[in-house]
Amino acid sequence: MELNDKDFERLEEIAYKIRRLSIEMITYGKWGHIGGSFSMAEILSVLYFKEMKVFPDDPLHESRDRLILSKAHGSPALYAALALRGYYDKEEIYRYCEINGLEGHTHIACVPGGIEASGGPLGMGLSVSAGIALGLRRKENPRSRVYCILGDGETNEGNVWEAAMSASHYHLDNLICIVDYNKAMAKGLIWELMGIEPFYDKWKAFGWNVQEVDGHNLNEVYGALYKARWVLANGKPNVVIAHTVKGKGVERAEFNYKWHTHAPDPVTADAMLRELSITYGREPLGYSKLNIKENKHTFYGGE
Q: What contacts 39, CB < 8 A, 6 or more positions away?
């Protein structure tokens, strides 16, 4: 299953905007995770603008699909996707990490119906997702799906595998997990700190349908999610291992754990955004005109 040319171009543009908005809010908020936000831009683009059934005007609609961001520190990318999808005004990104604004880690009160569960401690999201999937099954809701985005590093956590075993036991084929396998954690590379291979075999042994894709290839991501939803509804939960690049799109951040948690200053942000523009074949466009003292800005990250 592949995207038509129109959809491909649209989703590529959305992935670009997710990255731009992520830099905007992280720079303005002076905190955030560029690396892990950039690595899942294409995944979020496909989910929110092609795959998932959502209702931005009625976000708590009972028949909606649910997404749990287990790697909750990747909130800038999710907030960006939700803003672009119409859940809230894009100007709200400038309240990232402010009191009563968008929390640094996903918080359910920030975007009701868009943020399905609060996050922070890693390894919790798959348990939450399995619980929601089981609840939907017992409410006899056969069409809604629960999507969970896991970070590769958090699969070091034992409760991830407890949840994986539970999901298999309860035959939760309405649960689709996507692992953002970007190869780097906060303090180094996965294979140096706590290797997780053979990763495919682990999920298979826990009773899951497993697919592996290039997480930046829109066609591969869409094809795997389509298959998980419509073809592999066979009594097993589904996992898509998405091989990605931490910091994808900005050379200094790619595979660089030092950009796991780091907010660029406006000058660095400007350079990053101009590099992104060139990478995507757009007119070079830098950081918003920003007067930190007066807390004023001109928004350049949206349409």
A: 180, 182, 215, 244, 245, 246, 247, 248
